[in-house]
Each structure stands twice: as structure tokens, then as C-alpha cells.
Write a structure and sequence with these properties.
Number of helices of chain B: 11
Distance between the termini of chain A: 41 Å
Shape of chain A: globular
Number of helices of chain A: 12
CATH architecture of chain B: 3-Layer(aba) Sandwich
CATH architecture of the largest domain in chain A: 3-Layer(aba) Sandwich
Radius of gyration of chain A: 19 Å
Structural class of chain B: alpha/beta
CATH superfamily of the largest domain in chain A: Thiamin diphosphate (ThDP)-binding fold, Pyr/PP domains
Structural class of chain A: alpha/beta
Largest sheet of chain B: 5 strands, parallel
Oligomer: heterotetramer
CATH class of chain B: Alpha Beta
CATH topology of the largest domain in chain A: Rossmann fold
Bound molecules: thiamine diphosphate, magnesium ion
Strand content of chain A: 15-25%
Largest sheet of chain A: 7 strands, mixed
Strand order of the largest sheet of chain B: 1-2-3-5-4
Order of helices and strands of chain B: HHEHHHEHEHEHEHHH
Chain lengths: 325, 324, 325, 324
């Protein structure tokens, strides 16, 4: 049996391996060196690779992103960290107007092999400025790759693939996943971009879930499975580019679709999946599509309120019930 | 220690002392409550920095504004917010200032001009500038005090907002609480200047380096800066040199700071120092001190009880207060 | 007959009237005072209301937005201008983490009556950093109101309504619309938020189009109308909150939906409309939904390339043809 | 005028002169082409500022980097980019540096270290800092020159990037081209400091105020700053005081600048000035001058012809070059 490590250990391993492999890979961000990262993803990198490749920055998110862009242009492979997904708002100009577009604007001359890691920190009472899940924004931006791993295995394989990818990658982790354990092989492996995972097969309903919502969807699938309902759970993993074919095929089989995404509802990532299916597989749908998302509301701190806003297992169970009619 | 150059009456000075004590005890209660799992979300304590908030806020008028940071409890208490409703907010209760929606990092009391703590490092600086601009548009003589840490001074928001305030001569007092450390990063590792106040020259405004553990020194500087702002002469940048005693937050307890340095700063306790100043002035007897301490303890006890016994919000409350 | 003025004149009139009415309304932005705005929307305001209420700022988009938030908190009604929609990326933290969330985070204590105007400047060769249409991002953010007027009449009535609204409003104008003329009554009027416009009625196909795309859709509708196809064109005007009912009702009538939006495709505003319809009116759809959007590509400068990327009349005609099967 | 303190040979000085002339003539061609509706999108001309780009770029080595702005033609030419492909790009042609996708505001030649002009005011400053960081990581001795206008110095990106570069002692030379006006706003209306270079103190780096219309003065200062950067001693901030002769761009011709001021600066023409210096050194005869002017005119003529006759891109090209 493969060894079992945590999601954050898997990410940390990916960084160690890639920095070992390629001297042009380096990490940059707040509290990542001495502290090893707020969530310990960059642990021990400073000791191993020294202060010229493991760099604690000022609190300057826009400059961190811009520095990542510039360093990528200058032939290195920076991996930058935003402590919270929310702080990327400060760096949006660099991410969107520069990282994403420089290749195109220069007619293909420039390459920006930049990995932008950030944690989605919902579920622990961090409040409205520390709990957002902004993947839909990034997926809206031509030129970016968007990845959300849901397991330690995916975390490692996708982070390594992201670092080797010649394009700017937004790599979204989940605070509540860091401590979860999963099987991760010892040796090196890379995962595909694009590339989705069929988490669970089933002929009755298709559930597409992203990031931390994959485990929520899986537990809902197990719950309704007790009554004999067979739920197919698909984790897109790479939100952009998206492995559309797997989703369409599944919907053609099941005729029913529930989408589970942690971002707020309006113009969220779930809307894109719904739109794709309503364009490409409408005739196969036997029931209206259901989106299970966070409410259209800033995230509250109080536990009972946060629980009310975030999508949970019961919400998914309810949606599955509704599409089954 | 020389008698400080201040216009404060003895009663006013005792009020500063009481306020500093209240902050200290409040924060101890927050830490103890966190141990009991009563705190919801993060909390960043202000212990060791009390002189900064109290010295600044005592220079403000009742209808002035202030903006705060993730480490905002001290500013709130110095501004006179109710510790009961503050603690209830930190516990995520319906009776809190923000009905449990904001938590420690977002306590606000708009009715008292406290426009909100802020979880985005540097986020409050343009907002304070804007509030001052609003005052100007309304032709009011209000002043805005804007708190932020030294870590925030490397954010673009610091630069943009101070330049804007300076060029428009807006009534803001920018208060950098330089406690020498951001989350895990020391000031010199991140900030290419010896003193934050030296950056004032980049905006042609006065910069003041102040012993931030000396409440009277802070107050005196604040009075000058507030006067200047109110007179229409524009902003100032005050740098209160101070220190936090505790790790960054209840969620971040891994502390890279040298123990010696922490000990050194604890020896400069702003409360003990001020107590000594008051005693030397014969302004505070042992009995008076005991009485103040007792009153403060009672307030905190009451607050803990209030917060603990307050109801959780109703789940349906989650969808209220989004739009006006 | 009502008088005819341009879209930018209509906006300018709205500002004049509101500044006249309420001394707490003021304008802030780059080149808005002495120059009267890059597109002359703030023309003559400086002369009329003076430099304390018509303020040329430094080039500091984040501080402009933050100053707007603070001034709104402090009891005024700022109208800030971003010269190009793209530059709002620099101010996203203030817009998203502050303007949108302060009311909620303070438990309803704070109000942020702030209008954020910006121009979408596609279609004139401005390139990738000056041509984006980011309404989907703003609609994704709980706490914001998002408005896109498509005519001089809407421009004036909606801007006045936005200024009087107690919430933060993102108000997106279109560079190519500034010079178009339309009927605008002399007297004061306000338009509803939410509130959509039935631009054209028809029983065969529903076309939902936003901003500048309304005229593109209308001209496509006229084109196919020559063959007898009756196209219903709906302009949502207020993208958030959205008048969903009008769209659903129309789709229930026509059974066919084309959505025309100028933003890039993936996770764009068209996806949200598609998702809503696939949830609420799936059973009424007689054909797959069609999205007509900009390509998932940064905007190129060369005319032939920009034309290839932007949605045009022929694209809409094509989509109408496809949904009619 | 005294003999300048410079190590440049006569040939090198003549090359500076030629380069300045080429920029001037190129921009005249851009303006003329705009009249003929050949330019696609906006274009911001560099006329009047030629000494800045040429003085700085002549201090760089072939494998150094530079970043530019919306007003980038001068930097490109001073770096030795091909005026044919530049003009083709400005005309939106397939033969342009960016195949017509970037236009005037995004001309780049990555193979020559020209990382791109940039349409976001202040956008290039962190990128230059990052390129310098990349050089450090690769243990290369390359240096980065970073151009921006005085309007950009009020952006947060200016502050954040310079602080980061300073604290890491990165090899960047920050070059502010202070032409006294942003789009319609004068420097003093927006910027709360007398000289941009005064802001260098906020980052503990050298600040140089330079007569930006004196190409040798610019060059000499650049040599010093480049040396410092290459030696690992960190960034410098050079402020070239200069002026643009034309309105902001071909799209923005409403010009609020006082005609007297424009005239005054035209009298300080950097090209005429340098010609005089060369003549006084007996480094440039009337014949030589005529020959250079003729050669420059020929290059421009060739460029106009090339660009005009180049094909438009194929529409299908629109969807290429998004991802590597
Ligand atoms: C924009 C942003 N970046 C990072 C953080 C995470 N963070 C919270 S507090 C902090 C350190 C702040 O240091 P300083 O400004 O000195 O304030 P102090 O905590 O010392 O009072 C950091 C990095 C944040 N909240 N916001
Ligand atoms: C972020 C951003 N804000 C505004 C603009 C619009 N704009 C283009 S150039 C310019 C003025 C720039 O002034 P300066 O930096 O001094 O450069 P100059 O044009 O004088 O060379 C403005 C406001 C922009 N392109 N980017
Ligand atoms: Mg600090
Ligand atoms: Mg300028």
C-alpha cells in the first residue's frame, strides 16, 4: 500500500522535489521562509535551499505577483504564495493584466511560467475578508490556468505539473484540506492539465464538485447511496482548461446534474458548468440543473451563520433529491 | 522621569490609566476565553501596546472618526466602545456589535465614529483618507485617526492614501504602530527604511517618532497632529514604537521572536511605566489603584458573563444586512 | 417629441442634476475635473461645483476606491470614475473586500453609498489591458449592485438611481456608446433597480443582451426579422440584482434562448443567465442555449483581430439560426 | 557648456545623437501615419524626451533587461529594436513585433531583453523588480532598467516594488521620466513631494535628479546606477526632468498645458542641445550631421513602406498565442 500523508505535506513534497530538480524554481511570499508558511506548505525549504530561493517578502501582494511575473519573464520559475485567496484581490492587475496577457500581447514572444498558490480559508470563522473562493474570477480570465486539488494525491501531482507548465497557473488550496490524509506514492508523478477525476461512478445523477466540495459531495453520495441511488461524482481538478468531455458524457448517461461549488452563487463556477451542459447536452437532461453553492452573501464569522452560508452535505443531498424528482 | 508636557488634568490622566488597564484585562479575557473555545475565529491581542491606542484616542473629539486593523481591540476600547458587546462579537453572538457577523477583526461602532477594524493589512488607510475627504466635502471640522501596523507600510495602499491625503491636505492623523514584527517577519527584513516616520518626507508631511509605550508622549504628539489636521494643514504620520507581548494571534502561536527581545520589551510595560509616572506625581495612591483595578476587573467579568450568556445568532440572520 | 442627446451627455446631465440636488454628492477620479473626464462625462462640473467637489486625483486607483468607501462611510455620496474597466483590477481589494462587505461585516451598521463608474473600451483597438468587460466579476460579489445602461435614457435614469441608492454600485458604461444619441426627457426621472427593458417583443426566440450588445442584438433581430422570425430582446440593465422573472417568462414563451455578452466566455455573465434558465425553465427549452460572447482570449489591437474576438451581429444571427434549428 | 564628464568616445556620442534623431523622426512618422489613419489603437509619442531613453539605454549591456510604459517607442528604439517591425506593430500588421496583437502600448522584443511596453500606469515597476529577482536567482549579473512616468509614482506598485527591490538589493535602475504632466494633471496637483527622487530616501536608496534633456548627464548618472546595481549594491532612483512636446496621445489631443510652458521646453530641445555640444567638441561637422539625418530619414521611410505594405493578420490568428 502506498504511504499516507497530509495534503499540506504532499504540497510541501512537491515543492521540495521541484526545487531539487530545477535550480530556477524558487518560492516567494509572506511568512513562507522562516515560518515555513502560515499553513506549513513551504516548511524546511529555507533550510534546504537558502534565502536566495526561499524569500520572505514585505506585505505587498501586488509587488509579489508582479515580481513573480518579472522573474518568470527573466527565465526562472517562481512559485508565489498568497496566504488567503482573498488577498489576490490586491494583486489582480498583475495577475489579470500582466501574467495572463503578456504572452498574447507580445504575440507569443513571452512566457510566464508562474505558479500562484493561495488558500481558500472558509469554514473556520475567518470572516468575509478571509473566506472567499474566487476561482470563477480566474477562470474568466483568458491566459490563466486554474487548478483546485481535492486530495493529497492531486495536490502533489498537480502542483508539480503546474510548476513545469509554461503558463501562469492559479493554484487554489483549501485550509480545511491541509490536514486531511491520503495515499501518495513515494516516487515522482505528474498529473494532466486538463484532467478530471471520476471520484465515484453511478448511473442516476451526475455531481460535479470542486476543491473541498468533492468530499462534501462524496459524503452526500454515500448518504443517498444507502437508498440505492447511484451518484457519479466528478472532480474537474483543472477548472481551466476544463475536461468538458467527461462531464458531458456523464450527463448524457445520467440525465441529471448537480454542481457543488464553494464560491458565491451568482456568476460562480457552477454557472459555467451549467451553461456548458445547457449548450452541449440539453436534450439529455431529464430534470432542471441544480447548483449547490455558497449563498450570495459575504462570509459571516459566527459558526452557525457560516454553516448556514456554506454548502454542506445536506444541501447536496437535498439537491440530489430534487433532480431525482 | 520628568513631568510630562501635557495639558491633561489628573482625572484625565487617571482615565488614560484606566483605559490602558481595561484593554490589558480585556485581552487577557480574550486569551482565557480562547482556551475555553469561546472565541469564534481569530483574535489578535493588543497587550503591550496599550499606550498607543489610548494616547491617540484621548486626543480625539467625540464626533471624530477612526479606522483600525486586525489588531483592533485596543482602539475600540480606547474609543470607549462597550466591552460587553465587543466580547460578544468576538464570541460570535447575536448581541455583538456586528451580530456575530464580523468577529474580532471587524468590530465597528459607526455611531461612535469607529468605522471598523479591518482584516486586510493596509486596507483601512485609504478608507481613513476617504472619511477625511468626506468631512471636507461636508465642510465639517472632524478629524480621522488611522491606525495601522508597520507591516502595512509596505502596502501600496499606504503610499497612495498618504499621498492623496497630503496633496489635498486632508484632516487625517496616520498612526503607525511599529511593534517591530509583522506576522513572522521583522521590520528590517521587509522595510527598506530605518523608521516608518522617515517616509513622511516622501509626502512632505510631518513625521513623528514616538516612544509608543509612553502614553503621555503619544498623547502630546497626537494633540499636535490632530490640531494640525483640524486647522486644515493636512495629515501627519506618527510612528509609535512599541511591541506586542503575545504571539501574532490565537491562531498563529508559532513565534519566531527572540525571547530576550520579548523580555526586554515586557520590562518596558507601558502600564507599569505610566503607573509610576502617576505615583511620582502623587496622582495615584495605592488605594486608588486598587479601586481602578477592581472596577476594571468587574467590567471584564461582566463582559465575559454577558458574552457567554448571549444567544447565538439565528441561522436565518446569515442572509440579512447584505444590502441597505 | 422628447429631445435627443448623447449617452455621455445623458450621464453628464445626471451628474449635474444630482450634484445640484445634494451637496453631499461629489466626484473623484483621474482627469475628471480640468479635462472633464477622458470621455467628457464629468464636463463642466468643475466650473459649476468647484474643486472641493470635483476632484482630480493622482493615478492611484486603489486609493480612489478606498477614498470613495471612506467618504461614503462618512456621510457623503461619492461618484468615482475609473477611466477603463480594466483599471478596476487595481482597486479590487477596496471594491470587493471593503465596499461590498462593510455593511454586512458591521452587522448592518455601515452604509456605503458609493457609485463606481467605469468605461468598457472595446472596439477601438485599445488592446488587452484596456478592453475588458468584467461585469461577471462584480456580479459574483455579494454586496455590490451592477448596472450596465445601453441607451442615453437608461444612462441618465440609472445613474441618478445609482447615486441615490444606499449601496455600492458598479456602473459600467461603453466607450462606443458615448456618442450615440437617444431620446431623453427634459425633466427628472429615475429608473428601477432591479429593472429590465423589453427592447423588442417576439415569440420565436429570446435574446438577452447586455450593455453595448443590446444594439448588436437588436440589429441581428431586425436582420432575421426580415425572414419573419420574431425575436424578443431583453436588456437586463441591472445585472445585479437581476430581474429574473422577465427572462424566465420570455423563455417560457419562446422556448429558445440566446445570450449576448461582451465579456470573455468562460464564467462570464452569459453563463449566469444560462444557469438560471437551466434551473428555472429547463422544461420549456426547445433547443440548447446559445452564448454569444467574446472569445476566451485577451483583446488584440489589430482591427481584423479585434473584430474576430468581439461578438458581432453576424454571430448573433448565427446563434439565432442554430437555436431555431 | 562645459565638456561633459563621460567616458563615451566620439563615435559612441554620435550614436547617441543618431538614436535620438531616429526616435524623433519615428514619432513624427507615427503622427503623420495617424493622420492617414494607418495607426491602429492609441499611440503616445516621445518627442522631447529622447535624451532620457538614449542616455539610459546606452549604459546597459546587451543582455540586460528593460521594462517600458505606454509611451514606449523611445525606449524601444534606444534599445535597438527594428523600427520596421515597430511601426508594423503600431499599424496592427502581421509583421509587427507582436503580430498586431499588442499595438503601440505593448511593443516587446524579449530576445533583446525588452520585456514590453505596458498600458497600465505603474504596471511595469514590479515586473522590473521581478526580472531583477530572476537574475539574482539565476546568479546572473544582468541589470534591469525600469522606465515610468512621474504619474506612475503615486501608484502603490511604485512603492511596493521599490521597497522590495531595495530590501533585497536587487539590480534595478528605476528611471522616472518626469515630464511634469500625466494625462491632464500637473505634477504638483497630484504628487505631494517636490522631486520624485526625494522619495528615494523612503527606501534608503540613492535618488538622482537629472536634467533629462541632457543626454550625457543622463548617461553618466545611468552608468553609476547600473554599476551599483551590477555590483550587488541595490537599486537607484533616477529622475529625468523633461517634457513631452505633443498632447498626451493621438487619442487625447485636448491639452491643458500652458502654451508658454510648452514653448519654453521646446526651446530646451534635447537634440538641438546635444548637437551643439557635439559641434563645440568638433565631433560633428555639418556634413556628418547631414549624413546622419539622411540615414535616419531613410530608415524611417523604409519603415513606413514596410509597415504600410505589410499584411493584416489573418482573423484566425486571433486565437493563437494565448497559452504556451
Ligand atoms: C493584505 C493582507 N496580507 C496579509 C495578511 C495576513 N496578515 C495578517 S496580520 C499580518 C501582519 C501584520 O503586521 P503589522 O501590520 O505590523 O501589524 P501587527 O500584526 O504587527 O499589529 C499579516 C501578514 C492580511 N491580513 N492582509
Ligand atoms: C492604471 C492606469 N490608470 C490610468 C491610465 C490612463 N493613463 C494613461 S497614461 C496616463 C498618464 C500617465 O502619466 P505619466 O506616468 O506621467 O506618463 P506620461 O504619459 O507623462 O509619459 C494615464 C492617466 C492607465 N493607462 N493606467
Ligand atoms: Mg507589526
Ligand atoms: Mg508624465
Amino acid at each position: 500500500m502506498a504511504r499516507t500523508i497530509t495534503y499540506s505535506e504532499a504540497l510541501n513534497e512537491a515543492l521540495h522535489e521541484e526545487m531539487q530538480r530545477d535550480a530556477n524554481v524558487f518560492v516567494l511570499g509572506e511568512d513562507i521562509a522562516v515560518l515555513g508558511g502560515l499553513f506549513q506548505v513551504t516548511k524546511d525549504l529555507l533550510d534546504k535551499y537558502g534565502p536566495e530561493r526561499v524569500i520572505d517578502t514585505p506585505i505587498s501582494e501586488a509587488a509579489i505577483a508582479g515580481a513573480g511575473v518579472g522573474a518568470a519573464l527573466a527565465g526562472t520559475r517562481p512559485v508565489i504564495e498568497f496566504q488567503f485567496n482573498d488577498f489576490m484581490t490586491i494583486a489582480m492587475d498583475q495577475i489579470v493584466n500582466h501574467a495572463a496577457k503578456l504572452r498574447y500581447m507580445t504575440g507569443g514572444q513571452a512566457a510566464v511560467p508562474l505558479v500562484m498558490r493561495a488558500a481558500i480559508c472558509s469554514g473556520i470563522g475567518m470572516g468575509a475578508q478571509h473566506s472567499q473562493s474566487l476561482e470563477a474570477w480566474f477562470a474568466h480570465v483568458p491566459g490563466l490556468i486554474v487548478i483546485m486539488p481535492s486530495t493529497p494525491y492531486a495536490a502533489k501531482g498537480l502542483l508539480k505539473a503546474a510548476i513545469r507548465n509554461p503558463n501562469p497557473v492559479v493554484f487554489l488550496e483549501s485550509r480545511l484540506l491541509y490536514a486531511i490524509k491520503g495515499e501518495v506514492p513515494e516516487g515522482e508523478y505528474l498529473l494532466d492539465i486538463p484532467g478530471s477525476v471520476m471520484v465515484r461512478e453511478g448511473g442516476d445523477v451526475t455531481v460535479v464538485a470542486t476543491g473541498r466540495m468533492v468530499s462534501v459531495a462524496t459524503s452526500a453520495a454515500e448518504e443517498v447511496g444507502r437508498d440505492g441511488t447511484e451518484v457519479e461524482v466528478i472532480d474537474p481538478q483543472t477548472l481551466k482548461p476544463l475536461d468538458t468531455a467527461t462531464i458531458i458524457e456523464s450527463v448524457k448517461k445520467t440525465g441529471r446534474l448537480v454542481i457543488v461549488n464553494e464560491g458565491s452563487r451568482t456568476c460562480g463556477y457552477a454557472a459555467e458548468i451549467a451553461a456548458i451542459v445547457s449548450e452541449q447536452a440539453l436534450d439529455f437532461l431529464d430534470a432542471p440543473i441544480e447548483r449547490v453553492t455558497a449563498g450570495d452573501v459575504p462570509m459571516p464569522v459566527a459558526k452557525v451563520l457560516e454553516r448556514a452560508v456554506l454548502p454542506g452535505r445536506d444541501d447536496v443531498v437535498g439537491a440530489i433529491g430534487r433532480v431525482l424528482g | 522621569m520628568a513631568t510630562p508636557d501635557t495639558n491633561l488634568s489628573t482625572d484625565q490622566q487617571l482615565e488614560l490609566y484606566r483605559s490602558m488597564l481595561l484593554i490589558r484585562e480585556f485581552e487577557q479575557a480574550v486569551l482565557a476565553s480562547h482556551e475555553k473555545r469561546l472565541v469564534q475565529g481569530p483574535a489578535h491581542t493588543y497587550i503591550g501596546m496599550e499606550a498607543s491606542a489610548v494616547g491617540i484616542c484621548s486626543a480625539l473629539l467625540d464626533d471624530d472618526y477612526l479606522t483600525s486593523t486586525h489588531r483592533g481591540h485596543g482602539h475600540c476600547i480606547a474609543r470607549g466602545l462597550d466591552v460587553k458587546r465587543m466580547l460578544a462579537e468576538i464570541f460570535g453572538r447575536a448581541t455583538g456589535y456586528c451580530k456575530g457577523k464580523g468577529g474580532s477583526m471587524h468590530i465597528a461602532d459607526v455611531s461612535r465614529g469607529m468605522l471598523g477594524a479591518d482584516g486586510i493589512v493596509g486596507g483601512g488607510i485609504p478608507i481613513a483618507t476617504g472619511a477625511a475627504l468626506g468631512c471636507r466635502v461636508r465642510q465639517s471640522s472632524q478629524v480621522v485617526a488611522c491606525f495601522f501596523g508597520e507591516g502595512a507600510t509596505n502596502q501600496g495602499s499606504f503610499h497612495e492614501a498618504i499621498n492623496l491625503a497630503a496633496i489635498r491636505k486632508l484632516p487625517v492623523v496616520f498612526v503607525c504602530e511599529n511593534n517591530h514584527w509583522a506576522l513572522s517577519a521583522g521590520f528590517e527584513v521587509t522595510t527598506a527604511v530605518a523608521n516608518v516616520a522617515d517616509r513622511a518626507a516622501a509626502y512632505s508631511i510631518p513625521g513623528h517618532i514616538v516612544d509608543g509605550n509612553d502614553v503621555l508622549a503619544v498623547h502630546t504628539t497626537a494633540v499636535e497632529a490632530v490640531q494640525r489636521a483640524r486647522a486644515g494643514d493636512g495629515p501627519s504620520l506618527i510612528e509609535n514604537k512599541t511591541y506586542r507581548w503575545e504571539p501574532h494571534s490565537v491562531f498563529n502561536t508559532k513565534d519566531p521572536r527572540p525571547p530576550d527581545e520579548v523580555a526586554e520589551w515586557k520590562a518596558r510595560d507601558p502600564i507599569a511605566r505610566f503607573r509610576k509616572v502617576l505615583e511620582e506625581q502623587d496622582a495615584l495612591s495605592a488605594d486608588q489603584d486598587a479601586a481602578i483595578q477592581k472596577a476594571v476587573a468587574a467590567l471584564i467579568e461582566e463582559a465575559v458573563e454577558f458574552a457567554t450568556n448571549s444567544p447565538e445568532p439565528e441561522p436565518a440572520e446569515a442572509m440579512a444586512d447584505i444590502y441597505a
